[in-house]
Amino acid sequence: MKLLTTGLAALILTISMAVPALSAEEAGVTLLDSQFVGTNMVMLNGIALREKFFVDVYVAGLYLAEKASDPATILSKDSARLMVMHFVHDVEAKKINDAWMEGLQDNIEPVTPELTAQFEQLASMMEDIKDGEAMSFSYEPGAGTTVMVKGMNKGAIPGKEFADAILATWIGPKPGPGKSFKKALLGQ
What we know:
Radius of gyration: 18 Å
Distance between the termini: 49 Å
Helix content: 25-40%
CATH architecture: 3-Layer(bba) Sandwich
Number of domains: 1
Strand content: 25-35%
Structural class: alpha+beta
Number of strands: 9
Largest sheet: 7 strands, antiparallel
Strand order of the largest sheet: 3-4-5-6-7-8-9
CATH topology: Chalcone isomerase
C-alpha cells in the first residue's frame, strides 16, 4: 500500500509539473504565472490591456525576478525581466515604431545618441502584427535584451540602459499606453 501511495504521489507531482500554471486573463489572453529568461525564473508582476480609441490592441504582461510596484525599484535592479505583448488587434510596424520613439522621448532624460541608435535598431526588427501574434523583450544581465517578434528571434540589443529605456515606455513617468495600463503592470 505504501508503494502505491508513493507512486501515486509521484505521478500527481509529475503531472502538476507538466501542466503550466495559469495566472491571469485579460481580453481572452491568459498568461502563465512564471516564465524563464535564460536560466532565471521570473514571475508575473502584472497584466494590462492596451486600448486606443476604445479598441483593444494588446495584452501585456510584465515578469520580474521579484514582484515590485515601484518603477524606480524595478529599473534600479539588474536582474532578469520579461515583457510580453499578445496582440488582439492588427497593428502596422510603423505605428509600433512611432510609439517606441515617442515613449523614448517622453520617459528618458537625456536621450543619448547611443540610445537613439538602439531604438532605431529595435525599429528595424519590427513587423506588422496581426491579431493572435505576439512579441516579447527578455532582459538578461550581461546578455542584453532579446527581441522576439511573431515567435522569431530578431536579435539582442546590449546593455541595461536600453532594457531600462524600453521598459520605461510602459512604466515611466509618461507611459504611452496610459497611467491605468502602468498601474496594472505594476500590480497596483
